[in-house]
């Protein structure tokens, strides 16, 4: 793993060096961006949110013990910003029972120093940093991820 990382770092370093030496645009002939033939400064058209059908209902099993559970419902309409967090209106301990939603676990109410809080810790505020819904879209890049051995 370590040597792997070193290789990647070395490759990234080389890319930086050559990018500084070569004129802009020298790479475009060889590299194919995942978003297709769109010039780097151009803004691509945002995909319609209906492109992917989220897999809803029930709950997902976890692939490793520490995995944040996957979200089994749509999320794009729930606002989460500095002042508002609509996830909390269903999942916070004070609302979960009434809303019949799984309750946010105790770990989300500990600040970085381990103090117990009455409301969600700032480090857990942006839920979708860790929790994501699922769709069976074609993966952009192949990967060989396998669940933890105890779950196989
Ligand atoms: C209107 C209420 C409501 C809102 C708002 C809501 N959820 Fe949920 N959530 C639920 C319910 C109910 C479930 C249980 C599964 C189901 O019925 O879809 C659930 C399930 C989940 C789960 C799965 C938990 C587990 O143990 O498997 C996660 C994670 C989750 N929601 C995260 C979020 C996040 C993040 C947001 C905000 C972007 C959010 N939810 C907004 C009601 C809500
Ligand atoms: C830093 C990553 C992270 C953030 C941010 C985060 N969570 Fe979690 N969440 C986790 C992990 C990891 C678990 C599983 C372990 C645990 O319960 O702590 C989890 C568990 C949960 C569960 C299941 C609890 C259970 O007992 O099964 C719910 C529901 C949940 N989170 C909702 C939320 C909501 C809502 C937010 C935003 C207010 C949020 N989480 C923010 C990582 C995160």
Estimate what percentage of residues fall within beta strands. under 5%
**Helix content class:** 10-25%
Question: Which H/E pattern describes the elements?
Answer: HHH
Number of strands: 0
Task: Give a topology summary.
Blueprint: H1 2-21, H2 88-91, H3 96-99
The structure holds heme C (2 copies).
One heme C is lined by residues 66, 68-69, 85, 87-88, 91, 102, 104-105, 107-108, 120, 124-127, 129-131.
Top keywords for this entry?
single chain, 152 residues, mainly alpha, Flavocytochrome C3, Chain A, domain 2, 18% helix, 0% strand, globular, binds heme C
Commentary on this structure:
It is a single chain. By secondary structure, this protein is an all-alpha fold. It has a domain at 54-136: Orthogonal Bundle (Flavocytochrome C3, Chain A, domain 2), CATH 1.10.1130. It is 18% helix and 0% strand. The chain has three helices and no strands. The relative contact order is 0.13. It binds heme C (2 copies). One heme C (HEC) binds next to helix 2.
Question: Could you give a quick summary of the protein structure above?
Answer:
The chain is an all-alpha fold and 152 residues long.
